[in-house]
Structure prediction request, 360 residues.
Amino acid sequence: MPKLKTVLVTGGAGYIGSHCVVDLLQAGHEVVAIDNFANAVGDEEGSPALRRAETITGKNITFYKADVLDKAQIMKIFDRHSIDCVIHFAALKAVGESMQQPLLYYQNNLLGMLNLLEVMRSHNCYQMVFSSSCTVYGEPEYLPITETHPTGKITNVYGRTKYFIEEMLKDLSAADEKWNIISLRYFNPVGAHPSGMIGEDPTKEFTNLMPFMAQVALGKKPVLTVFGSDYNTPDGTGVRDYIHVMDLASGHVAALNLLSNNHIRLKVYNLGTGKGVSVKELVNVFEKVTNTKIPLKYVERRLGDITAMWADATLAKEELGWTTRYSVEEMCTDFWRWQTMNPDGYPKKSKTSVIVNGKS
Prediction:
């Protein structure tokens, strides 16, 4: 068994969380997952995504419907389980929504982390992998971006919540040497599990690019809205570093392995492919691999967006032993498999059993 045996995964029913849970189980970890279904599909029996993760792996997940804003609720879960490490995904995450509802984002993301850290400390659990974001870099001063790139000049509220939490973790690890934390700065997760059983099923109108694109390809939406066609990029559309969600998941397992064997206090790693792809380029690849046509509608730039961003992930390769494996074509193919197998996303009701509150 891994040294960090039992892992609490907050936001475990969400897009990235559910894919990470699959990799954690396959690596031999025991998973306790929580989610309040703010960004994920839930039903009266728990999480459809996590039930499918159990099917994929043949292993059980202990799931609680819980909210990190409810400190007493989180305390009870720690009382019930011997948690060795926390992977903290739970956060509101839409850039556009964050600009419209800043107080909601500050309350949920900052207070949720504070509650979690206090509960962890009270139970002598000091190992954490934090889900951060490349948005902490703001408009890049140079590309590709390394972990030493300045942070703080951030263009949106969502990114500022991630930045403030990173600063909080710096202060915490400096004040108390017991803490052992890795902050993973994600670039742009896309794709789905190759089985097509789990994938991204947005619960809000503020959705990511690929789910929207797939809905257009299915004929469920008329056009793909592209925010900005006048950026200083080769084709005028924004450039991002798209990373397959399963590559992102394996990065968390690699981070856990490093934490279990080293006391690093606090370390930051970029998780990206190191290649920039424009919105138009991604659409072209998606059309090619799915044999569909996606009409585009160009509108004004979205408040809070930047021109271009891609990672230098050398440090993760050298210290975590982690590299990406999936191509842009595979990202599109896997997402299309998920979408065509599940055109309406997860079923909203299921009779398959799930472990809820420690009981099946």
